[in-house]
Design goal:
67 residues; alpha+beta; two-stranded antiparallel ribbon; 33% helix
Length: 67
Amino acid sequence: MKCPLKNVFLRARDGTDYWEVGDCLKEECAWWMHNRKTCAIYSLAWDLLSLRETAIHIHDKIPYGGN
């Protein structure tokens, strides 16, 4: 399977769950980022995770409003 998402979670009819690993097209894929040498979807996920961690860090430093 050639899939830009590469790993696809599937649930079989018998109720079993499994991962199907696709073939990453890299430079041939429209979502490939040449400057980062990675898939834009994975890059976006890591960037969002970083923003989440930063937001949590900022939230922890904000004083509680009741004090």
